[in-house]
Structure prediction request, 106 residues.
Amino acid sequence: HNFFCFQWGNAKFIALDSTALATTGGNGARMRHGAFAPGAEQYDFLIEELAKAKANNTCVWTIVFLHFPMFVSADYQVDCMQVICPILEGSCVDLVLTSHSKSHDY
Prediction:
């Protein structure tokens, strides 16, 4: 799998494979049908790992990282990735790191 998790010290890191969730092309990016919904492997993995992090009293920080950004001020945004936001916002996630966009926001 290209999605996984590990704990380092008091931080839990959760990696998601956003390239498996979204397709990109001439009409922009869109979520693959059923790729991130209850019952989908990566969705269930994220829900399970976030629950484990919340229950683990040695886990002080929860950090999620993935390739496609949910929000960016530059010209390339993968809007369909925003489906992940309510899950991250409603759980114990302290930091989300993304890449892809080569612009710098200040």
The first strand starts at residue 4 and ends at 8. The helical segments are 18-21, 41-55, 85-89. The chain has a mean pLDDT of 82.
